[in-house]
Every structure is written in structure tokens, then in C-alpha cells.
Specification:
- Two copies of one chain form a homodimer.
- Chain A is an alpha+beta fold.
- Chain A has four domains: 6-75 and 152-338 and 440-444, Bira Bifunctional Protein, Domain 2 (BirA Bifunctional Protein, domain 2, 2-Layer Sandwich), CATH 3.30.930.10; 85-148, Herpes Virus-1 (2-Layer Sandwich); 353-434, no CATH class; 475-580, Rossmann fold (3-Layer(aba) Sandwich), CATH 3.40.50.
- In chain A, 33% of the residues lie in helices and 29% in strands.
- In chain A, the strands form eight sheets. In chain A, strands 3-10-11-21-16-15-14-12-13 form a nine-stranded mixed sheet. A six-stranded mixed sheet of chain A has the order 25-24-26-27-28-29, with helices on both faces. In chain A, strands 4-9-8 form a three-stranded antiparallel sheet.
- In chain A, strand 18 (408-410) and strand 19 (413-415) form a beta hairpin.
- The two termini of chain A are 40 Å apart.
- The interface between A and B is large, with 87 and 87 residues.
Chain lengths: 582, 582
Amino acid sequence: MKVSDKFEKVSELARRRGFFWPSYEIYGGVGGFICWGPLGALLKRRIEDKFRDIFLRRLNFYEVETPIIAPERVFKASGHIDNFKEPMVECSACKRKFRADHLLQEIAGISSQETDKMKLEDIGRSLNEHGVKCPECGGLLSEPKYFLTMFQTNIGPYSDNIGYGRPEAAQGIFTEFKRLYEQVRERLPIGFAQIGHALRNEISPRQGPIRLREFTIIDLEFFFDPENPKCHLLDEVADEKLRLILAENRLKGDEKPVELTVREIVNKGYVIVEWLAFFMALAKRLVTSLGIPEDKQHFIEKYPWERAHYSAQGFDQEVYLERWGWVEVAGFNYRTDYDLSGHMRESGVDMRVFKQSDKETVREEIKINPVIKNIKEDFADKAPEVIRMLQGINPEAILEALDKQGFFDLNGLKITPRHIEAVRVRVKEKGKRFIPHVIEPSFGSDRLAYAALEYAYTVKEDRVILKLPRDIAPIQLAVLPLVSRDGLPEKAKEVYSLLLDEGFYVEYDESGYIGKRYARFDEIGVPLCITIDYQTLRDDTVTIRDRDTWRQVRTKIAEMPPLLNKYFRFKINFEDLGTPHR
Amino acid sequence: MKVSDKFEKVSELARRRGFFWPSYEIYGGVGGFICWGPLGALLKRRIEDKFRDIFLRRLNFYEVETPIIAPERVFKASGHIDNFKEPMVECSACKRKFRADHLLQEIAGISSQETDKMKLEDIGRSLNEHGVKCPECGGLLSEPKYFLTMFQTNIGPYSDNIGYGRPEAAQGIFTEFKRLYEQVRERLPIGFAQIGHALRNEISPRQGPIRLREFTIIDLEFFFDPENPKCHLLDEVADEKLRLILAENRLKGDEKPVELTVREIVNKGYVIVEWLAFFMALAKRLVTSLGIPEDKQHFIEKYPWERAHYSAQGFDQEVYLERWGWVEVAGFNYRTDYDLSGHMRESGVDMRVFKQSDKETVREEIKINPVIKNIKEDFADKAPEVIRMLQGINPEAILEALDKQGFFDLNGLKITPRHIEAVRVRVKEKGKRFIPHVIEPSFGSDRLAYAALEYAYTVKEDRVILKLPRDIAPIQLAVLPLVSRDGLPEKAKEVYSLLLDEGFYVEYDESGYIGKRYARFDEIGVPLCITIDYQTLRDDTVTIRDRDTWRQVRTKIAEMPPLLNKYFRFKINFEDLGTPHR
């Protein structure tokens, strides 16, 4: 038998016991889609819940849930239509299509840092120079073209009503920002997160759960006043040490991480905005709590040409995985006002917020007054709606459109100069209007779950033990009668019911020799096995067995629920669950 | 001001305070998409978690998470390509498109029972007879055509690789059934559920959160042996009373519900399978626990022509909503072996399970042996894969294809008679192979959340109180210093931190007069407000105020966490939280 790497071992276990596997196998499989099974879906959700706890509940930030399908204008505004594309070549013989930059990396040995900087012509030239042929059939490759890596569809029955599957959950927060901001009573700074499926139509996905066409994204959009960028929570993480690979060192060819405290990172100016370092520190705690050692994580600062189109500074949080090396599990980007400005431009809706100050400012402003008579004449029933909508639109946008094309498009209605009157007004305000800036921590839930599995996968005495941290283990407890006779199953079922009623995730199992059952539960990471034996029938005590050490303690059944609650919240250790057994 | 109905009132509150609102308003809105905001997303998730608790954790069933995008063959197999379509007409003048059956209902006054039975020609004839014109411009309507109401896209860069957004989460379970069944160690009966976004490309959606193009579906697929259809858990719900509108009564024109216990429903044979009644009883409990009174719920049995294409018997669970009358929140269908058979036919993969029995049966079976030499010659590197794949395929399917078209399509590879040898073998088995049957309870999460909001919406002394059941209220606790001076905010923040550390969803608020703050939290359904006053500084007690009765009790801060935990799990009542105050 050939030696398999850890990815193969984890995948085999994941497929057999129900963590994850490739989707649609009965139809030959479709690249880039995976399923999370009975155990995997629970594990993944527990990780997402952990994010919710650390980044939302404790910070008084909020989760939202917006659609996956969005109309084309959203992605025009966000820059995705222009930027979310990859270079692709087609084989003239077998007609297969490939990522052109990947071919350069794999066949010509050019680094991704290099290919990331290349224009389409550069890629074409380089493919020619290196004589790159089709890796499947050796055929000639076409000139590279850009392929838009979003899933396209139509919304409703009209073919010109184009929609896309969202490649990130962030835009669902930006398009709704005005409402959200009102709903939280105009609080800044404030964070809104979204956890949900995202879609990226990769040209030729590989790498199992690492590069997917459909995956779960965890996007947190944190809005703040750029004139007030201080992080008031910095003290809470100031001493946390982060391993950082800085762009300035990378340029010198040094890719070794430096270890710095958050305080040092901020003081030395390695981050443009303090909050960036704050969220990186929380992210390190989150990833560490999934069982990934500190020295198997780091943050790598991206070069300008490696960053997404909206980013002014960016770090990737990477985790070391046996097969692929350092793999991104999260990105931290300073998105500035890029997105809100884009939506303001595209929609004409004012996305600015108002900030009070003691100083009174006087400014000239253009105000648009509706000419009600003409609007009624031209729009009849829709007049009230037109008048209402006009109020929400940035006057500059209307005047610019009138100037350029003679009309303003108000969601399909043509507003011409006869419908409005522009007046200059002097506005006295104690304060000013501005577009909030955004810091975005963004996690890949599937990758986090895979990484947790890989680090939990250990072997002891030739058996697999899945040492998942106890608070993300999918099944918390197994209840096992020592043998399936003499009233032990009945007693065990009572204990099972008791624990179910207390809200635990419990399995009951009486099939086969007890050692084999222990092994079965060790393999799926159940932290504790509770065994009902003959002594239980006499004194209502059970044994509790620790997955990792195989040690056992003995405890009164009635005392178990509060003890277990504390154990799973890390308030007590295994030894505190009872008295040592044997 | 005009009188607004409850939907308008709930929607106004929902928009203003962050429960839900129409998506993409800055782009003029896109019909059929909504956003769940900071409070709404939490409410909706708490409802989904309740489903998880009642239908999964307690029954030892499992949740899975599979992709939203699926290849075309999945929906060929499931019958959706043929059946998931609606009649559509286009206006020849303004080019707008409409659901033809909806026009008949709204303009010609024909009932949906009637239009549901009509063929395309019938609809066209009826539109003509009733002289139905375009409701927007009065233009002539085209002949009706069918419109496939799935969102279509391409997977990857190949235009012939068509995919669809799933209209139900169920198929993700059926396509993976073989793996799932192995992962649970071949246990029957067994249930697998999926909670996730589903997509239905409605022609002209309306009705806010009720008819959506993108929504959250909760599909539970319960697999059982049709020869052993008894529900062993029936006793747990036998005395639960359900209000049923039976198809036999509906045929007689009687749409009044009859109230029957689950035991009676089963004994009188009103359900084909006991499990159908079992899940309906659990669903009644779930919906009741969301605050919807029993007399505002019922189950209506569907006529054959109203049922989905896969259903042999179906009930809709309906809830009464003020604007729309009785609205479906869940469907219960006996899907038989329709889906697994479809996927077995389309994929050629054997979806049967094996059942042991004492009786030995001998049967003749056709077995396919690979002709290894020829396979190696023709498929080179892929030979081992071909040999492995051939083993998973139903021999009948291979022989049928060879017979019909001369080859069998093995995921793109042509298997011809020279690659295989068919032999007849006598198989002795203690048992038999069969396709499990399926009962499906399926909920609409958005509708459940909306219904909970509508029933929670009450007015007391001219103020809105959102009387959400305490276990689904998004924010559990508010911590309020009586005034924002004299050290009360500092003390209140200590209490806030304590409750955060205990895992509660808490808000802190010190802005404005205390009565106004109470009103603000009543309006979003926070069950308890905790007030820190001058007495707190002396004796470390706080007042706890009940949202619904406005009564108050006084409690020691240190005693609060365990009491609150019990309160939110319905183990104690408000009065048990402390001693009466004032």
C-alpha cells in the first residue's frame, strides 16, 4: 500500500464517517463542490458559532442575512464586473480550458508573485516563450482571455435582467448600509457580519475543500469614522503576539515571520488602522482555539498587486497544511470607502453619515425641488413615489446626469429638467457628512473546518483519535452499556434521555465489544464516553472516559449535568468530573 | 392617515428596528428578495435552532450541508426539469410578463383549485373567454407558455455545462444518500435534514416575505423501509390534537377542519404512513412554541392535482395571517421512492439498501465482469478507475444502454460490449434489496419568522410590545442604569460584562429617560430589562422587569445567572426570578 499524506487520511476518514466528501459522486462528481455530512455540518456550525461569539455577541456587533443572488448593478458598483476575472486559455485540440497563470506556475515554474503582476499580453508572451502546451493532450493553446469568475443567471423571465451569485457576502451589507446604520441608531464604529454561501465560478478547481466553487464565507464589515480611527478595545489584545510576514521584508526576499505584540505592531505603524491589528488578534485566538498551534499560523502582508481591487492594506492569515503548505484561512483588508462610494455613484443614493460637532459649519449645498405639476403630468400614479425617491438621491448625481445625457434614470423612469428645480441653499450644520471607512476580516468556514480536522487527526496505538477541542466536537457524549444484557441497556437509555433533556449532543450505542465502541467514538472525536456497568445498577454511578488520555473517572449520574456543562465551557478539567477509576 | 393592516405595521417595525425589509432598495428594489437584519437574522436563526432541537438532536437525526448549485442531471432525475414550471403570458404591447394562472384567479375570478388542474391549452382558452388583457397597459396577451422557474447558470467555463440553483434542499440529500446511509452504519429509519437557501425564479413575486425568489428552506428527508412503516415513537404524540382539513371533506365543499388526535388520525387511516402524522404533530408543537395559537393553525390535505410531482400524499400546515388568510408554512409529503429511483435511473448507480432476514432467498442476478485486458488497452491510466466505477453501477442499466445505443456512458467514457462480460449468477442471500421510502416535512424559515412576528405584535397603552416567546427573542436582556451619572453606568457595565460572560445576548443602554428605554426594548421583544439603581450601589441587587406585564422583581446580582438560565429554558417563571418590587 502506498503511503498516503495527511490530506488523504483525513479525507478517507471524512468520507467514511460523515465529515465531508466531493458532491455529486453518483454523477461522476463536479469539481469545486463538497458536502458536509452529519458530523461535518455540526463541526462547521460550531466553528461558525464560535466566530459569532467572539466577533459579534461579545463586541455587540450584529449578523445579517441577505440574498446570494444580486442584480448586475451591485457588482458594477463593487468593481467585481471589472476585476473579478481570471486569465484563461483553451486548447485548440481537446478544447479543454485552463487557468493561464496556473499553467505558468506549474509548467514554467514562475512564482505566483510574478504571475499576479502580469497583464494578459505578458501571460500570453510568457506561455509562448516557455512553450507551454495543453497539459492534457499536448495541443496548442489559444491566446489568454479573461473569464468572469462569477456565476451568471437571469432574475425573473426577462433575459436582460442579469444577476450573479455573490462571490462575497460583503456586498449584501454595503447595499443595505443606510438601513442598517439607522437600525443601530447611527452608531459608529459598528460591525455587521454575514455567514453564508458564496459562489466563485473557478475555471478548473482542485484541492478538495481548499478551492471551492461554492463555499461558506464569514464576512465582517466594520465601519468607522476615518477621522477617529483609534481602537478603544486595543488594550484587550495589546499583549497578544502575532507572527507577521511584512511586505517590506518580503521585498528583501525575507519571508520569515517576525513575532510582535499587537501594541508593537500598532506603535511601529505596520498597520494603517489600529482595528486591523485588533481583528487579527481576535482571529489568532479563534484559530488557536480550533486546535491549530501558534507556530502553524501567521499573517502575511500582501503586496499592492496581490491585493483585491478594493483594498488599501491587506493581510492573509495562513495556516500550515501538510499537502499544500501555507494556506489562507482568512483575509484582513482595509477597504476604505471603496464600496460605499461605488454604490453611492452607481445608485445615486447618498451613503454618507452625519457627524455632530461643536463647531458650526456653513456650506452651500444644491437642493433638488420636485416640480410637482410636471411630475404628476408625466408619471400619473407614480408621482408620489417619484417625489419620494428623488429626495433620497444625491443632487450632484442628478445634475451630472442631466448635464451629460439630458435625463436622470430613476430606476427606469426618465427624469428631465422639466421635473426638477435645482436651488442653491446655505446650510448651517453643527457637524459634517462623510462616508465611513471599512475594515474587513473575512474567513473561509470550510477551510477552517478542514484545518481543525487535519490538526485533530492523530494516531495512538495504531488507532485514529480525532482530538478536536471539546467545544467544537460535533458529538459531545456517547452513552454505552458495558454489555447489552442484564438491564444495562435500559439503565443506559435512562442516562441517555437525561443528557438529551439537558441539551447535549449524545449518541447511544450498545453494538459490539466495548473497546471497539470506544475506538469508534475516539475516531470521530467524541470527548467523553459514559459507560453504564454492573456497579451502576447498585449505586447509580457511571464511568466517564477521556478521549485523549483514555483515563476514567467515576461519577454519580445526578451530578453529571452541571459538571458536564462546566467541562464543555472549559470551566473545569476532566479530573474534576469524578473520582479516578481503577 | 389611512388605517394600515397588520402586515404594514409589522413591516414598518421590521424595517425601522432591523428585522427584515426588501433587498436592494438603493437600486429600486428587486422583487422576491428580502434581507434579515440585526434582530431578524437572530430571530430566524433561533427558530431554525428550535427545529434542530426538536426534529434532529432529540430524534438522533442529522443535519447536512450540500451545495445550492447542482448540475442539470440532478434535476432531470428529480423531475424538476419536466415539472417545475409555471404558465406565463407576455403582453404584446408593453412586453411585461405575468403568471397566466394568477391572472385567471385575479381577473377572471377562477379559483386556484381550478387553475391548478388546467393544462396550458385550457389556460389559453380561459384567458380568451374571459377577455383577460394586460393588467398594466390593457394590451393583448400572448398564448401561455411554460417558464422553468429555476435559476439557470453555467458551471465553469463550458457553455454546455448547465447548472441550476436548487429549488429545494432535498435533492442534496437524495444524491448523497448512499454515502449518508453508510455513514450512519446502515440505520433505518433515519432522517437527514438541511437548512439553507433555496432559489425559485418566480415570474412576478409579490407578498413581501411570503413569496420569495430566495428563501431559507428546512427540508427533512426521513427514510424508512416500506415493509416496516410503523412509527415506534407514535406514543409520544398520540394524544396531540391536530386540526385537519381532509381532502374527502373538501371534495364535498366542506373546508372546515376536524380536530383529531394523532391516534385517531392513524387509526382511521387518514394518513398513508404513520410517520406523516408523527411529524405533523411535532410541527404543530414547533409552530405553537413560536407563539402561534392552536386555532390559527391547521393541516390541509392536498388534492392529487395540487400535490408536487413526487408526492403520493401531502398536507400543508397553514397559519392564519391577517392580510393573506391561510398561508402555508410547512408541507408534509410522502415522496415514496420517487427521488431515489429517479437518481438510480439517471446515474445508473444502485440506490437500494440491503435488509437482512432469517429467510434465505435465492435469486438469479446478472453480474458484470470487467474485461480487464480490453479496458487497459482502451483507457490506459484510467483503467483502474473504470473498473472501480463499473462495480457501483446497476448491471441492468449497463445492459439496457448497450442494447439501445451500443455503448454505456460511464461519466463521459464509452463502455462497449468488448469491455464487459455479463454473467448470470445465483445469489443466495438472507435478505433482500429495496429502495427506502421517504416522508418529508419541509418548512419555510422566512414564513415562520414572519408569522412569529405578526403574532407577537401587540399594542398596550398605545405602545408596541413584541411578545415573542422568550426562547426566540433575539436580544434576551437589556442592562440599564437608571440614570447616567453617580456611578450607575459603571456598575451597570459590570453587570453587562457578567451577563456577556455567561453567554447571554445582552444590550447596554444609558441614553435617555428610563421609561423611553423600556419602551424601546419592549418594541423589539427583549423579555427582561435589568435596571441598576441607587439601591444597587448599596446592596448589589437589581430590578428585573417583565416585558409583558411590566412587573418587577428584585434580585441579587450574583444569583442572577443561574436563575436567568432556568428562566430562558422555561424551567422557572418570571415570579421566581426575585422578590416583588414596589
